[in-house]
Amino acid sequence: MNFVLNLSFSDLLLLLPEIFLTCWLCVVITVDFVSPRLPKERLAYLSVGGLLATLGCLAWFDVNQVSGTLFGNMFVLDRMAIFFKIFILGSTTLVILASIEYVDRFTLFRGEYYALVVMSALGMMFMASANDLLSVFVSLEFSTLGFYILVSYLRDDLASNEAGLKFFILGVFAAGLFAYGISLVYGETGKLVFSDMASAPATPGLIIGFLLIFAALGFKIGAVPFHSWIPDTYHGAPTPVTAFLSIAPKGAALAILLRIFIVALGTFKPTWIYLLVVVSIVSMTYGNIVAIAQRNIKRLLAYSGIAQIGNVLIGLAAGTKMGNDAILFYLLAYLFANIGAFAVVIAVSQAIGRDEIEDYRGLGRRSPFLAFSMLLFLLSLAGVPPLAGFIGKLYIFIAAIKEGLYTLITVGLINIVISMYYYLIVVKQMYINEPIDPSPISIRGHMKAVIYVGLAGTLVIGIYPQPFTDWVVAATLMFANFVTPAATITPPTLLIGS
Amino acid sequence: MGEYALLYILFAPFVGALGLIFVSNRQPTLVRGIAASAAFVSLVASLYIFYGYDPVQGGFQFVQKFAWSKELGIALYLGVDGIGTPLVLASSILLFAGIFVSWHIKDRAKEFYIWLLILAAATIGVFMSLDLFFLYFFYEMSVIPMYLLLGMWGSHTKKYLEMTDPEGLKQRDSVGFIFNFGSNSKEYAAMKLVLFLSAFAVAALMGILLIYKFSGLNTFDILVLREQANLMNIPVLGTTLDKIIWILVFFGFASIAPIWPLHSWSPVGHAAAPAATSMLHAGVLMKLGHFSIIRVAFEILPETTRELMPIAAVLCMFSIIYGGFVAFYAKDTKYVIGYSSSSHMGYVFLGMAALNYISLSGAVIYMFAHAMATGMLFAMAGWVYDQTHTRDIPSLGGLSNKMPFISGCFIVGCMASIGMPGTVNFVAEIMIVVGSWNKYPLQVIVAMLGIVLTLAYLFKMMRGLFYGPMNQKYSHAHDAVGTVDRLPLLMMITISIGFGIFPMHLYEVVRSGVDPLIARITQVVPVAKSDEGSRSVKAAAEITQPPAIPMVSHKPIAQVSEASRGGQE
Q1: Hey, is the C-beta of B69 within 8 angstroms of any chain A C-beta?
Q2: Residue B478, min C-alpha distance to chain A (Å)
Q3: Cα–Cα distance for residue pair A341/A461, rounded to 1 Å
Q4: How confident is the model at residue A297 (pLDDT cuts 50, 70, 90)?
Q5: Where along chain B do its domains lie?
Q6: Residues of A numbered 400-429 whose beta carbons fall under 8 angstroms of chain B's beta carbons: which are they?
Q7: For B69-91, how does the pLDDT look when each residue is reduced to its tens digit (9 = 90+)?
């Protein structure tokens, strides 16, 4: 393998969003450094400006179908990478807007907060484009580095420190597993780029290597049994960081999982389908059942996120192009509902100072707007029509039923009902119970903007999904070349009868 | 305008709900005005499709189709046949009436009307969906508004309100109240309703997904699926696939109907709901079950339906008798009407199970008739509750002095519920009974017994509420005096009696929907239904009773039936 850097201008064009964002990151840090008295709100707007410019650039790429690979196939820019970059940057923008008020709670380094958020986003952008194991590892650690700091940003809060430490220790452990997995895979195949591995024979070393890699990525997306850090970290971290953590890294890690499972391991589908089916069933069931017992809204959303990932893995288990489309679509629905729900949590905790579910008593009277938004976001997460989450779930189920994954769909459907219970408990607190303190809750403009974006996304995707399905279908076109074995090879236990 | 009528019916309530979001609760007149006008548009358009529906032509009319998702094979495909048309009309009538019944709601009136309109629109959406996806979409969409309507504007049972000791209070507020079956709070009722219906709805969704997968047509279009889907004879789990799908779809949708072992959410839900919600719930929401079974199981799996429909014939007996006896012993006005509704839904299942032209038409007309009758009863029970703030029958009594109008209407409501000749319920009941006699005599006897039971518990309740000594605590109660209060009741009474005396158009519309369906299921071809004979019956008008001739569903009977009806005249 030779790493001759032979970059032309058109190659650099592929890297333009990343290069631009890196420069912008430096600008944000410099501005913060040069004029420390500048209101930090301005820094937020500055970061959002850069992110929006990058989003515009990516949208231009998407429309003009710019694609290509760089650095000996390490970096790939295809439409799926563009989709995930837009997903990541979109969530980053919304998170920054949602955190403007919250940042006042930090005692120190308020300016650096925005820089760290953008830096993590940058790392995740590379994750979305990573096409070999090395670049995956480097970009993964790059983005996680920012998160380690962000999670423990509330310096004086023990819970935040605990969250950061837990996340760090387990994260580093996962990184170790990942590195070990890479070494095994490289040792067995002599390849690092995903598409080169497609024809490798299944040796025990390779299988163990991929299992280790799956464990590390499962840690990122928070699938059971790699979820143990999620509740405490989500609970202790500053709420905007929790929101960020619950959306963007999951998307980025799923981009990698899609490339690994479909491109590198496509021929082993009859084997890994067992793994995904088990992980998916356990994630959904565990996440939903444990969420019932939660008293804290952030922990509830954490467990609900675990369950949502279980749903996403149904699409991955389907292993078809339609399954991948469904995953992308589901992530879009999840993005809007989750960021909206967390924005409401932030707005409420700014007014009340706590995140317990019982603090939502009578929110329907105190702030009809917040309560109504939260209602729609939670129902979308539960999968109730006409909201985005319903179409997302149905899309995944349709993709899975075409592959004959009846067990998974049955479990998924039952889990919709279980999840409805705990989402409705929050709804009950908001609408049915009377408030103890009936004073109205005021919301600031940018928070309102985030919630409006969430509402718009949740409703528009739910009511008119055609443009979004078109988009995700186009985004995964390159998977059409990697046809996984047909459903008939699926193990007979997964099919009813036959 | 005509061809867009379905869009007006479906989207007027949605637009109304959307408009209400931007109105403040401080303008109650405007709020009610918007809600009432949205419902009015719906009602007028429903009347238009009901009278504009051409029973001679039959089939699906006023069809609208918009591509929705090509990738998934979904289209917003709307159309009504003879079965959907009366149910759409019933929904709009009950929505319109419900808005007037809840005219005096003070607390968060805007939100109440928003959810009520969404509930009604979703219900209407099911009745006109020709796409399995949208059928499920609207079905599930109608469940969630119920949670909020019950939770926010509902009422607790007496038993719950009596739990004021520390232990009781603790129990009432415990997080796990859903598992605490002792406390019949409105929250419990609302949660039970949503979880129960969702749990069975996902079973139906599984059935729908299986149809989608094994038809291999990549579409949810009911018309395409019923023509082309071949789901027969695929062996699965020791039985065949079509049976599994049928069972999933049948029980998935029958839970909302509610058929006997799956009924327990329903009376609790009725009892907790505010009057207008109970009306919609009992009047049309429960019919979603029968209608969806007809639309999905009957249309797509006719042969399996013929084979498995006896299940419904067995269960409906339990529905009728069990519901009737519980209603007889219930002490809560709304429980009585709620269980009475569960019991009466058994007749619809009986009519469906017999699978012939007369009985299925009777079942569909019964759905319409029951919507009017139970709507009236719930509206009046709601009025009594608003005046006295109790639903406990033993503590009430002698109210007819205070509310002569309501008590008079109540008698009419009871008569309609029992199926007194002159009300449309009679037409429906007699058709079900006559149509099912040959196939299920035992069930018909049980149904007759059920009518006697209905008589017993409704009269018992009427005596308990309106006659006997009056409880002086409720001397402040007053009658419905204004137009707003009387309009909904008078409207429903007029419709019930009007169709009871002139049922012919309703009958023809329903027959035009039922005939092709039964022909497909029983493989018997019906005769053209709007010949001179039936026109003359229309003129005679009082002849509401279809001919009581021997009918076996596997023989061509329609011709005989027409001839003998002429002779009877």
Answers
A1: yes
A2: 29
A3: 16
A4: very high
A5: 363-569
A6: 401-402, 404, 409-410, 413-414, 416-417, 420-421, 424-425, 427-428
A7: 888 888 899 999 889 999 999 99
